[in-house]
Amino acid sequence: QVQLVESGGGLVQAGGSLRLSCAASGRTFSRYTMGWFRQAPGKEREFVAAISRLGGSTYYTDSVKGRFTLSRDNAKNTVYLQMNSLEPEDTAVYYCAAGTSGTYIGPRTDQYDYWGQGTQVTVSS
Length: 125
Description:
Layout: E1 4-7, E2 10-13, E3 18-24, E4 33-39, E5 46-51, E6 58-60, E7 68-73, E8 78-83, E9 92-99, E10 114-115, E11 119-124
Parallel strand pairs: 2-11
Antiparallel strand pairs: 1-3, 3-8, 4-5, 4-9, 5-6, 7-8, 9-10, 9-11
């Protein structure tokens, strides 16, 4: 069982920045691909970004490219999502996810096995 805990969400003005963190339990964190998803009211859960096991590859959805940066520190069992130039459209609950069965970093929810509880990000205009 992998437990994931997100933190760092909050209220920010448009154009501002937030840094989300996801802390994972266990001793095998470096074996997992990691992803971030978000869900706004009335919408499906949406892929945001993913990172390979050692952090050498990242993949972002088009709407956040150039604004968000995903990184990981395997020594700390933690992944980070740095969000800059935030827009009201970024408002959502953000979820951290771990994939345990492969190395592919993809956008589908069924490619990830464990999920955190989510952290709210609200961007005001």
